[in-house]
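chain below, 256 aa
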Amino acid sequence: MENSSRSIAAVERAMDVLLLFGRSGRPDLGVTEIANELGLTKAAVHRILTALRNRELISVEPTTRRYTLGHAAIALGRAYLARTDLRVMAAPELRRLASTTGETATLSIRRGNTRMYVDQVVPDQELRMEVTLGVPYPLHAGSSSKAILALLRPEEIDDYLEGQELTAFTDATITSPSALRAELATIRERGYAISSGERQVGAASIAAPVLDHDGGVVGAISVSGPSSRFEPRMRDCVPLLRKAATAVSAQLGYSG
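prediction:
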């Protein structure tokens, strides 16, 4: 029984070390850092790292003697992501949003310099918004597009604004790069995007970004409806929208 308890404790310490790499935010760690953060002796950390290296869960840089996640750990992460269906994760939140707001709730994902709707829940109303799934849209027009564009890395935003024509879909589409930059800064600050007829005349929408474990934007959740009905109460729906996007992001490992 005592040997069994020791074995379990050893496994738990090894898992603590492995998980530390996942949450530290640093590309590599040294023995002293690991020991200090986990309250272990350096000798214990060395033993654990050796065992993890033998299974290729951890690798070491020979020159600096600092450790990083190994091939096997990365393979585990990829296997998890391959089994992660964002639509399944988001479906309950979309249903809740549509039911609570009485408007259409959608999920979009990013595809390079475009984004597309991959799911929607449409309310039982005679006058309602419906979107077309699977059609790529540019990232500068509409709330879902802007919510994604605003959370890209600065260099990606620069590449988009410098390399893509900001086509006008309606008179409300932002086609000035400087004006769009200012809009993106506002979106980042408040955490959501608004559109009033930017991509489709007569439509109003709000959207919040969905982030993965690294804080990278993978998509957006939106609520949309006819401008005459939804625009006056869009901002009242923001807390519900942000709660839904946060819940989905948490399932992807985002903890910011």
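The CA atoms of residues 57 and 73 lie 5 Å apart. The mean pLDDT is 88.
thats it, cya
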